[in-house]
């Protein structure tokens, strides 16, 4: 769908939601920037903040072949930095960590990840006969490493294949690493 079609499609739901006590719209597993642009425009029309969460393939690119950088920059340029922030979901950290350069401004717009447990591609997961829950300890290590690439990362979660074991590992290790980074950052400012 085009940005205009996506805006019209989502405006109905967003309009209804905007009349509730909802604080923010979160659009997950977005595959292409036009979809994100349409959703962002619809949320702006109703005065609602929005979080856009892209998904990527095993090569770190969106399913349409665009880079994450191209997608985020296109949405931001087209909507005047409309989304409150961005996330990445429905992909394992090894699929996208290699494309994140903390020195690039677009990376600072990413505040959250909801990673898959499995390192398999979406195509491989579609062919699985059983759920691939990966390795919870490795899942934590790879999510924790993102703290050093994504300076504004403060939202963690699990997507396909994750369960309480994955989230417990992230909580045990990432919270400690996050607190050390926050303390080190505070020390630098003083």
UniProtKB/TrEMBL annotation:
* Pathway assignment: Amino-acid biosynthesis; L-methionine biosynthesis via de novo pathway
Q: Which GO molecular function entries does the Swiss-Prot or TrEMBL record give?
A: metal ion binding; methyltransferase activity
State its cofactor: Zn(2+)
Entry binding sites for Zn(2+): 90, 159-160
The GO annotation for biological process reads: methylation
InterPro entries linked to this entry: HCY_dom (IPR003726), HCY_dom_sf (IPR036589)
Q: Which UniProt keywords apply?
A: Metal-binding, Methyltransferase, Transferase, Zinc
> What Gene3D superfamilies does the record point to?
Homocysteine-binding-like domain (3.20.20.330)
Q: Give TM regions.
A: none
Domain (Hcy-binding) spans 1-174
Domain of life, per lineage: Eukaryota
Q: Could you tell me what this protein is called?
A: Hcy-binding domain-containing protein
Organism for this UniProt entry: Rotaria sordida
């Amino acid at each position: 769908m085009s940005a205009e079609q996506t805006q019209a499609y989502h405006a109905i739901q967003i309009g209804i939601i905007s009349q509730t006590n909802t604080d923010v719209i979160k659009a997950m597993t977005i595959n292409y920037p036009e979809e994100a642009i349409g959703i962002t425009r619809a949320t702006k029309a109703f005065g609602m903040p929005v979080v856009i969460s892209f998904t990527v393939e095993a090569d770190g690119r969106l399913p349409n072949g665009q880079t994450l950088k191209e997608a985020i920059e296109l949405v931001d340029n087209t909507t005047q930095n409309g989304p409150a922030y961005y996330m990445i979901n429905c992909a394992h950290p090894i699929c996208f960590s290699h494309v994140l350069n903390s020195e690039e401004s677009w990376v600072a717009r990413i505040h959250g990840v909801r990673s898959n447990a499995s390192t398999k591609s979406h195509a491989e997961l579609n062919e699985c006969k059983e759920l691939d829950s990966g390795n919870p300890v490795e899942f934590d290590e790879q999510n924790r490493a993102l703290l050093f690439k994504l300076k504004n990362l403060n939202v963690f979660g699990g997507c396909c294949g994750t369960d309480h074991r994955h989230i417990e590992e992230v909580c045990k290790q990432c919270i400690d690493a996050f607190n050390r980074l926050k303390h080190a950052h505070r020390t630098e400012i003083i």
